[in-house]
């Protein structure tokens, strides 16, 4: 996940004798992108899963069964826990988070109680959440691992999970003290503990296995 730093990029541009022309071109393209983004907000509907990524409108295709199963099971556990403890707000699939340049509809996201307190009926655009979960597919994995990874990190999303539903593993990242994601785990077994949702800890198997999911759900309900 290494990449050129912002300062290195700035230094590279400033080393060019025609740096002003380069910056003018960038500003022109960003202004065109801003206008396209405004049109995107006017054109999107609640019936399609769409995202605005680096000036491009991305329309997502229907998901496979294993994607839906894993997401549904995880949402059931997270939402039950968060609501029982009154910790905040959980969104699934069609919650659009709007960052400085891009707009995403994560598979699952969590906003802490302070952020959620400002949400209103009819709201369709949301700020950066505290936890984002993306369920990987062949078509989306590249954006999930590259652009979204950098964007979530840059906007202070405390925790980022990626789930591989076919191979049944979870990859967990957490922001460190300098605002960079550290890999916490990548595994099919054991438990995963969420720092963004205080006290939330589940067996990884419960994301992929129906019976194990029910066991974890019962445990959460008994603990309320």
Keywords:
224 residues, 7 helices, 38% helix, 26% strand, globular
Any idea what the CATH architecture is?
A: Alpha-Beta Complex
Query: What is the average per-residue confidence, as pLDDT, rounded to a whole number?
Result: 93
Number of strands: 13
Major sheet strand order: 3-6-8-9-10-11
Which structural category fits the helices and strands?
A: alpha+beta
| SSE string | HHEEHEEEEHEEHHEEEEEH
User: How many independent structural domains?
Assistant: 1
Per DSSP, what share of the residues sits in E-state strands of 2 or more residues? 25-35%
Q: Report the end-to-end length measured between terminal Cα atoms.
A: 39 Å
The rough form would be described as globular
Rg, Cα atoms, Å: 19 Å
- Helicity, in percent? 25-40%
User: How many strands, what sense, and barrel or not for the largest sheet?
Assistant: 6 strands, mixed
> What's the level 1 CATH class?
Alpha Beta
Low-confidence stretches: none
Secondary-structure blueprint:
Blueprint: H1 6-14, H2 19-43, E1 50-53, E2 56-59, H3 65-85, E3 88-92, E4 96-98, E5 103-104, E6 108-112, H4 113-116, E7 125-126, E8 131-135, H5 141-145, H6 147-154, E9 159-164, E10 169-175, E11 181-187, E12 191-194, E13 200-203, H7 210-222
Parallel strand pairs: 4-7, 8-9
Antiparallel strand pairs: 1-2, 3-6, 4-5, 6-8, 9-10, 10-11, 12-13
């Amino acid at each position: 996940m290494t990449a050129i730093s912002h300062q290195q990029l700035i230094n590279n541009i400033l080393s060019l004798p025609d740096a002003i022309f380069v910056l003018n071109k960038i500003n022109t393209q960003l202004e065109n992108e801003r206008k396209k983004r405004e049109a995107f907000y006017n054109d999107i509907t609640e019936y399609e899963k769409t995202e605005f990524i680096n000036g491009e409108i991305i329309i997502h295709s229907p998901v496979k069964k294993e994607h839906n199963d894993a997401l549904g099971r995880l949402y059931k556990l997270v939402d039950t826990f968060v609501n029982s403890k009154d910790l905040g707000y959980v969104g699934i699939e069609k919650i659009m988070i709007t960052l400085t340049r891009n707009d995403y509809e994560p598979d699952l996201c969590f906003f802490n109680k302070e952020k959620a307190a400002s949400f209103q009926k009819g709201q369709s655009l949301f700020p950066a959440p505290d936890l984002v979960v993306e369920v990987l597919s062949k078509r989306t994995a590249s954006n999930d691992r590259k652009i979204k990874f950098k964007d979530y990190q840059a906007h202070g999303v405390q925790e980022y999970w990626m789930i591989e539903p076919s191979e049944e593993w979870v990859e967990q990242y957490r922001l460190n003290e300098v605002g960079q994601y550290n890999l916490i785990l990548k595994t099919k077994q054991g438990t995963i503990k969420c720092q963004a949702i205080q006290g939330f800890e589940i067996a990884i198997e419960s994301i992929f296995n129906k019976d194990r999911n029910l066991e974890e759900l019962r445990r959460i309900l008994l603990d309320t």
